[in-house]
Amino acid sequence: MRAAATGLLAILVAATTARAEPVRVVDALGRAVVLPAPPRRIVTIFSSNTELVAALGLTDRIVGIDAFTRYPPDAAAKPVVGGRLGFSVEAIAAQKPDLVVLTPARQAVHQIRDAMERIGVPTLVLTSRTVAEVVGNLRLLGRATGVPERAEALAGELEARLAAVAARVAGRPCRRVVLVTGRLGNGLLLAARRDTYTGDALLRAGGCFALAGSVPQVSPEALFAADPDVLLLAGSAAELAELAGRPGFAGIRAVVEGHAHAVPRAEFLIPGPRTVAGIERLAGLLHPAGAP
Amino acid sequence: MSVIAGRPVRLALALLACLVFAACAGHRWAGPLDLARAVAGDPDLSARLLVAWRLPRILAAGLVGALLGLGGAIFQGVFRNPLAEPYLLGSAGGAAIGATIALLVPLGLPSSLALGGLSFAGAWAATLLVLAVAQGARDTAGLLLAGVAVAAMLGAVRSFLMLALSDESVSLQVVLSWTLGGIQTPTWAGLGLLAILVVLALAASLTLARGLDLLGLGTDQAAAFGLATDSFLRRAICVGAFVVAVAVAYGGLVGFVGLIAPHIARWWVGPRHRALLPVSGAIGAGLVLVCDGLARALLPPAEIPLGLITAAAGGPFFLVLLRRRMRA
């Protein structure tokens, strides 16, 4: 009995000691972030960061999200600390977080980091310029949150799936693709471009860019002139049908030959684990089994 | 000056009330006891946020409001036009271009520094451009027209930059929200600098008081009283442009305050600028303090852009005062 109690005590002491060890990581901005202990109350700004933390099995540690987070459902029910009209540092502080994970978009870093630093709450900034960086974010978060083994296992699994896609599309002729990610009120389209993780995903799936240049806004006329092999729309099938029904679209080769597809926005516009599923899906669309 | 005898105390009390309201207002309303505990060093995160974040912000809000009130009074005096407002000479358009670059182009500078610095530079550059186009300040109608034309050109450049530089991650909303105004919480050093600039602005403005009074009689009369109108107007516009540029650097484009604060002040203390300028500054400070508090408190956890509140809440308030005034 005494031996068991001593053993239990030893385990508790060891656990306490392990928890008390400070965690040091370097974030995407090159900042050394020191966490006194693995965080227990995490605010995740943007759906991508929420998904990454949830993918590590740490949904129960998330105490605040932004209003656009829809997935996973149990994380989406957490208190909201910001949305379309910006982020509330007061709402974040009210959750008493010991880590805020954010991304330099929509002024989040500008609005939040300085405030959190002033009250001593560490912030971890993640960026997602490539698919490799998205997977790397899992490892970074794993180290920061004290679950590096779990993160390594998940990242390794995602990398293996990416390698399988790479093997599958290797040697196949590149399909010229336009991936429409949004539409502007004036009729211009937003298209996936180089130097973004969405563009990287497209390349990994065996596609290449039908549009030259790296400006995100393109006129439909430029799209018609590019005449892509495949037209993709990040959105629903109904939205694709609406786009394909616009003047000029019905005549482009991709639409005529049935190579216009809707792909889930979540897989191509939220840089998280689901992006890998998107790459697998896209590789299947661009290079169906049996195609040359 | 007898007109305002006894009023400084009431003005100071009203400002203090606005300051306390702004300190209490927010996503979480804080009571006076919470404020006292926070100032006394309560280690709770929310209490620390009150001292480290809300306090410098509301002080900055008050100072920005004071600048807008001052700027409005100067420009209304210079142009002898009750519709004149601080952004008349293209400073808003210039500042917005500076802010657009700061927000959408990675410059490798701390964002608060880039935003404040470039918007300040943009506001100044636009005013100098208007002065150059109008060949000085002698012809105020020409100045106004040059200001309108430069503002239109700068607006087009800004819109193009916004479209060309934005993408999925850096949205137009970021620039749009800046153009709608919002107080940037400064560091304590930044707040100290702002306070010094406000004192300098007030001092420089007060040197204009007599000249602005004389201008109210018309340029010929003012010249007959010995005012070198051309050089005075140029100096007054430069002081006004400086005041507005500082306000824009710390608070973005906060509309309406610079238009209504001088009118409220004029109704209260009369048209003499020696009293009008500081009172207009104080009223501007009070208006922005209250509106900033409402902006933070009305729609938690979001924050409504300050410029929307100043127009939406300040507008009816001004109309009530205007109606009373017209009846009288």
Q: So how many helices of chain B?
A: 14
Overall mean pLDDT of chain A: 88
CATH architecture of chain B: Orthogonal Bundle
The description of the largest β-sheet of chain B is: none
**Total helical segments of chain A:** 13
CATH class of chain B: Mainly Alpha
Q: CATH top level of the largest domain in chain A?
A: Alpha Beta
Number of strands of chain B: 0
Element pattern of chain A in H and E: HEEEHEHEEHEHEHHEEHEEHEHHEHH
Structural class of chain B: mainly alpha
Runs of chain B in which pLDDT lies below 50 for 5 or more consecutive residues are none
Overview of this structure, please?
- The complex is a heterodimer of chains A (292) and B (328).
- Chain A has helices at 2-20, 47-55, 73-76, 89-94, 108-118, 131-145, 148-169, 197-204, 220-226, 237-244, 253-256, 265-269, 274-286, and strands at 23-26, 32-35, 42-44, 62-64, 82-83, 86-87, 99-102, 123-125, 175-183, 189-191, 207-209, 217-218, 230-234, 260-263.
- Chain A is of the alpha/beta class.
- Chain A folds into two domains: 21-154, Rossmann fold (3-Layer(aba) Sandwich); 172-286, Rossmann fold (3-Layer(aba) Sandwich).
- In chain A, the strands form four sheets. In chain A, strands 9, 10, 11, 12, 13 and 14 form a six-stranded mixed sheet that branches. A four-stranded parallel sheet of chain A has the order 4-3-7-8, sandwiched between helices.
- In chain A, helix 6 packs antiparallel against helix 7 and helix 7 (148-169) runs parallel beside helix 13 (274-286).
- Chain A is globular.
- The model of chain A is unreliable at 8-19 (pLDDT under 50).
- By secondary structure, chain B is mostly helical.
- Chain B has one domain (2-327): Orthogonal Bundle (ABC transporter involved in vitamin B12 uptake, BtuC), CATH 1.10.3470.10.
- Chain B has helices at residues 7-24, 32-39, 45-79, 91-104, 111-133, 140-165, 172-179, 188-206, 209-215, 219-224, 229-251, 257-269, 273-297, 306-327.
- In chain B, helix 5 runs antiparallel to helix 6 (140-165).
- Chain B is globular.
- The A-B interface holds A 80-91, 93-94, 96, 103-107, 109-110, 114-115, 118-121, 181-182, 190, 196, 198, 215-217, 269 and B 26-28, 45-46, 48-49, 52-54, 103, 111-112, 163-164, 166-171, 173-174, 177, 185, 296, 299-305.
